[in-house]
Structure formats: structure tokens, C-alpha cells
Design a protein that fits this description.
Distance between the termini: 96 Å
Number of strands: 8
Oligomer: single chain
Length: 288
């Protein structure tokens, strides 16, 4: 009789070692592929939001939806915000500084559904980037749902330094493919436990002076050291961050919820800030 021969211990160890090596090689590639897939879904979300943003303007004589978010209880604020702060069952806004930790997804969704863009979308999923992991890493009420903000360059309620320069109507916009409307933001230090207000940028008033360039409102980086942006012509794209100071700024805001309280971080000659400034609004508006 011929007896079958099994694997020796050494052969088994070799096979296990080969499998471990293959896993070490493949896992990073799989993680990268997963993040790239998330960025594709994120770009689709921003295109959906942009479509709603454009449709709102078409239905309102070209007037743009307000870039404000979560400030609807302030009498001095615009009442046509694209999203509002979380609401309870009775439609009342939650207390802020920040919202209570008992806040639920449904409360957040009601705030989204009260916004002016909801009638054109009707899908809360469009407001959340699949790569935004605050749902699993942040404690309530910092475990936000909404991943996007509208730039203060667009809308009814620009900050004082942008007044007279921000776009108020769709007819004001020229070369919309060059200027981003929607920005991925991770504002964990917000008083509302949400990305509050619009997305602000310092240095756009004096773009020709790189020594004064600085970050203010937080950014998010959910896609292999890059972020997605939605542009005024309706397209969305992913931008890779190149300066390590940009990634450090993003990480600081991500790790420390208290870090952004009027944060004003100088970053002279930062090429990422150059890109952000050049695509915030047209050069002519910035130099008024």
C-alpha cells in the first residue's frame, strides 16, 4: 500500500508566512481602493447637492440659497439656509454650546429636511461623505452626520469681510467651473455639534500677499490626503493636499474638538492655500 504523505511542520509554516506576506501587501491596497470608492460616492453626493443648489436658484429668480447653517434661531440671520440646526419632534432647535449628547440621527435629519435644498433632494445620504468616520470615532454630540458646508463666497449671508464680493445671484457667477461652492468640513469644535455657518477662508482679500495667508475654518481629508469640492458649474472634483502644514491643520481640528474657536492659523506661501484662494472667487472680486 502507498501511504499518503501530509504537510510537514516546516511546510505549513512556510505557507502561513507566504499568506501573511501577501496579506501585508494586499491590505493597504484594499484600504486604498475602499477610500477611493468612498471618494467616488462623495463626488456623487456633491453633484446631487449642486444640482439642488442650481435648481433652487432657477426657482428663485437666480437668488442663491443662504450659505448659513445652524443659525436659524438668531433673529439677525437669514431664514433661507440650505440646512438648519437639529430639530426635535416639535420642530424646535436644540440648545447649543454644544447640542445635548442625547441628540439623535432623526433630530439631525429634521434639521436637514427643514433646509431650502431638501425639496430637490429628499435623501439624507447625500449630505454625508462615506469616508466621514465621525459616526464611529466621536462621542455625541460630535458624531455629526453632515459632511459638507457651503463657501461664504456664495449665498445671502456673507461675513462682513466678504460683503460686496460674495456672489448673491447665479447671474453674478462667471466661469463657475473655477470656483467651489461645497467644501468638506470637519468642525468638531462647533458650538452646535455640527458644521455651523458657511466655510470661511482668510487671505482672499489680499491674494497677492502670500505672507498673510492663513487657515480659519476647518477642512476635512477623508480621501487619501485629499478632499472633494463641488463647483458652481455643477461638477465635483477631488483635490490632493501637498503641503504638510495643511494636513497638520486638518488633523489638529480632527483630534481636538476644542481646537477651533476662532482658529486663525498662519501658513505663508502654502501652495494648498494658493489653490483655495484662487478658486474661492474671481480675482476681480477679491481685489475690490
Amino acid at each position: 500500500m502507498v501511504r499518503s504523505r501530509g504537510f510537514t511542520l516546516i511546510e505549513l509554516l512556510v505557507v502561513i508566512a507566504v499568506i501573511a506576506i501577501l496579506m501585508a501587501i494586499l491590505l493597504p491596497a484594499l484600504q486604498s481602493a475602499k477610500r477611493l470608492a468612498a471618494s467616488s460616492n462623495c463626488l456623487a453626493n456633491e453633484k446631487t447637492l449642486l444640482t439642488a443648489w442650481i435648481m433652487y436658484a432657477d426657482d428663485n429668480d437666480g437668488h442663491l440659497a443662504s450659505n448659513m447653517a445652524c443659525y436659524d434661531d438668531d433673529k439677525d440671520r437669514d431664514k433661507t439656509a440650505w440646512v438648519f440646526s437639529p430639530k426635535d419632534l416639535a420642530g424646535n432647535s436644540f440648545a447649543h454650546h454644544p447640542a445635548p449628547p442625547t441628540i439623535t440621527d432623526e433630530d439631525r435629519f429634521r434639521g436637514i429636511q427643514a433646509g431650502t435644498l431638501w425639496q430637490y433632494i429628499k435623501d439624507v445620504g447625500a449630505y454625508h461623505c462615506p469616508g466621514d468616520n465621525r459616526r464611529s470615532t466621536q462621542q455625541s454630540p460630535r458624531d455629526c452626520w453632515r459632511s459638507y458646508s457651503i463657501s461664504y463666497a456664495f449665498g445671502h449671508f456673507p461675513l462682513s469681510q466678504y460683503r460686496g464680493k460674495a456672489y448673491q445671484k447665479m447671474q453674478d457667477i462667471r466661469q463657475g467651473a473655477s470656483y467651489y461652492v461645497f467644501v468638506e468640513e470637519e468642525h468638531n469644535g462647533s458650538n452646535y455639534g455640527e458644521n455651523e455657518g458657511g466655510w470661511a477662508l482668510r487671505g482672499v482679500e489680499q491674494p497677492l500677499n502670500p505672507g498673510n495667508w492663513r487657515f480659519y475654518d476647518p477642512l476635512a481629508s477623508y480621501h487619501l490626503k485629499s478632499s472633494t469640492f463641488g463647483f458652481a458649474d455643477g461638477h465635483a472634483d477631488r483635490h490632493k493636499w501637498k503641503d504638510k502644514r495643511t494636513l497638520e491643520f486638518i488633523q489638529t481640528n480632527k483630534d481636538n474638538p476644542a481646537s477651533h474657536s476662532g482658529m486663525d492659523t498662519p501658513s505663508p506661501d502654502n501652495e494648498d492655500l494658493r489653490w483655495l484662494i484662487e478658486h474661492f472667487w474671481s480675482k476681480g472680486r477679491g481685489l475690490r
